[in-house]
Design goal:
The protein is α+β, with helices and mostly antiparallel strands. It contains six helices and eleven strands.
Amino acid sequence: MEKPSLLQPVTEEVRRQAKGLLRSERHAALSWLTPAGAPGVSRVALATAQDGAPIILISQLSPHFAALENDPRCSLLVGTPGKGDPLAHPRMTVHGRATNLSEEQRAETRARYLNIHPKAALYVDFADFAFWRITPEDASLNGGFAKAYELVPSDLVTDVPDGMEAMEAGAVEHMNEDHLDAIALYAETLLGLPAGNWRMAAFDAEGLDLAAGDETARLWFDKPLKAAAELRPKLVALAKRAREKA
């Protein structure tokens, strides 16, 4: 007799929670395999590509750099415990394969990573540091007691409209230089967050990533963008909605 599955059905709400963990967490536990096959675990600073795939920046001096070159299989544990029982808070393990990004891919990755981790500017250009992309193969999400889900890659990554990656750095810079008032409205009015030095860290087809110091926040669009040209009208509409709400 088969035992009933403890897994819950994956809904759009579950997918959003999983994607939110990857987009909003600033660090993760990276698990990798030594040449002898033993497991190793390291803490890494975490960012994402526009499609939501995890991005890490690591040094050749670290043992996991050589380990990933030898065997790209790895996993990431994301989810920061809050108050009380640490096992009551959401966390997710993502299994995937790591790829050392080429110099051609580095420029856009560098700009996005530094918007999320500005202090990394101190060492990002050191010769021994490189960006790695972890392509998800599956994931296990624990959303709390009796909330277990098994996810596939399409639950974690999103489509990237043509031209959106190329425009991101300029658009983020423009918003942070000329529209901090709108960004504050996104964070404080639409998301109900405390007042702070909020800035835009990144965007993608499904939402905005905001940051204030070490604090991060995710503002989801009501529906994904289908074209890069839709971004500006969406930002204007969000600011208008926030002003009306305020």
